[in-house]
Amino acid sequence: MNKPIKLIATNAKANPQDKIITNLKPQIIYIPLKNKKGQNYKPIIKENDYVYKGDVVAITTNDNFPIHTSVSGYVVSCTEKTISTGEKVKCLVIENDFKEKYRTTTGAKRYINNYSKEDFINLLKESGIIGLSGSAFPTYQKYQTSKPKLLIINAVECEPYLSCDKTLIYHQAEYLLEGIDAILDIMHIPSAIIAVKENDYTSIEELNKYIGTYPNISITLIPNKYPCGWERELIKLTVNQTYNHSPAEIGIITNNISTIYAIYEMLKYNRPLTERIITLIGDNFTKPINVKVKIGTNLGEILTKIKQYKPKENSIIIAGGPMMGKNIQASELIITQDINGIIITSNYPSQPMTPCIKCGKCSEVCPASLIPNEIIKNINNPAKLKKLKPERCIECGLCSYICPAKIKIRDFVIKAKKEASHD
Ligand code: SF4
Ligand code: SF4
After folding, report:
1. pTM of whole model > 0.85?
2. Are 263 and 132 part of one and the same domain?
């Protein structure tokens, strides 16, 4: 899908070559005790405890997956804040002492390729590494695949206007390749392919500067169409293979390029996942920018320090990109690992929904081969809904984008998907 979306001005792309703005000194950070997938965390620290940067402060109740504090300081209280799903959840509140103190400092490793497979997988879990494209899928689970044959790096960043991945490639290509090389060695994977959009000349040029020294890593160019970053589509476009349930069936592991950088920092500096780059776009910014922030920062605090932010009346906040993002309606949004962009705009198309005209366009565009208008029609009919398989929805938003009746189809299908998962 190459058409620009009306939601944002067409000059909306941040330039990956711009310096990454850092916004790493929040007064307070908030650690949500529930993630976007609905998993709950139980705190392992309490009020008045002192925490070091990178300490585990909570773990998921079902599988002990950790979340770390991105600052050192005191735990002061608990409060409710909004997360990327729009839900208000309980958060641990940690006051930053601005000392950036780690409990143990190990220094940078010179050579990062000599971990055992077991140590690597354990470290991925202990470091709380999850997919940074928005999926929030725990990365260690992907590496539990037996005998992987190929690592595919998703560097296509297919959400229109987001550029945090491209920015990372421009500024850190050398280290990204070092990280990929280490993963191949550690996991005994024969080769890696970095999938890049065919028109992303900056990333192609940057990667090509360093890739020559890595014989097992190559670049594959992918057509610029949405949603080429969807795992199933990405694998099809990259190696022309399909699978039933998981890429592990065909010996493939996929990782987003920002996740690779988190893995590199974990291997090199023994750092858990506590920071990420997000793209800020929309007409409330004098220009679109990429900002490095600490996980747990309140969006409101970030905005007070961004000189490009010029708030306009009647604006809305979307967590994520224009296709998959969620209209949040709250400036008290907490930046979590799954947020790759924020749109703040007063230019939001708000045409009223009209009845479905049965044009079938939503089915035509659906990459998961669903019949979205039928899903909506049967939203209160569990038996029929089951047959329509809403759980296969990848939440790409193409159905809502194309619908002439302006029906927010994606939201309905996500609701149906959630209901189907409770069966
Ligand atoms: S695209 Fe909209 S109007 Fe057309 S069938 Fe789907 S829901 Fe109905
Ligand atoms: S959001 Fe879901 S239902 Fe809509 S087009 Fe994408 S996959 Fe299909």
Report:
1. yes
2. yes
Number of domains in the chain: 3
**The domain containing residue 226 runs over which residues?**
117-269
Rounded Cα distance, 178 and 186, in Å: 12
Render pLDDT for 133-186 as a digit per residue (tens, 0 to 9).
888 899 999 999 878 999 999 999 999 999 999 999 999 999 999 999 999 999
pLDDT tens digits, one per residue of 278-294: 999 999 999 999 999 99
Do residues 34 and 87 lie in contact, with contact meaning Cβ atoms separated by under 8 Å?
yes
Q: Within this chain, do residues 128 and 154 fall inside the same structural domain, yes or no?
A: yes
Q: Whose CA is nearest to atom 2 of ligand 1?
A: 403
CA of 376 to the centre of ligand 2 (A): 12
Tokens 């992303």, residue? 200
Residue identifier of the C-alpha nearest atom 3 of ligand 1: 356
8 part of a folded domain? no
How far is CA 135 from its chain centroid?
A: 6
- 279 Cβ partners below 8 Å, 6+ apart? 14, 161, 162, 163, 164, 167, 288, 289, 290, 340, 341, 342
Question: Residue 54: inside a domain, yes or no?
Answer: yes
Nearest CA to ligand 2 atom 4: 399
Residue 414 CA: nearest ligand 2 atom is: 2
Task: Indicate if 258 and 308 belong to the same structural domain.
Answer: no
C-beta 398 within 6 A of ligand 2: yes
For the CA of 227, the nearest atom of ligand 2: 6
Distance 98 CA to ligand 1 centre (A): 52
> Are residues 317 and 291 part of one domain?
yes
Ligand located closest to 233 CA: 2
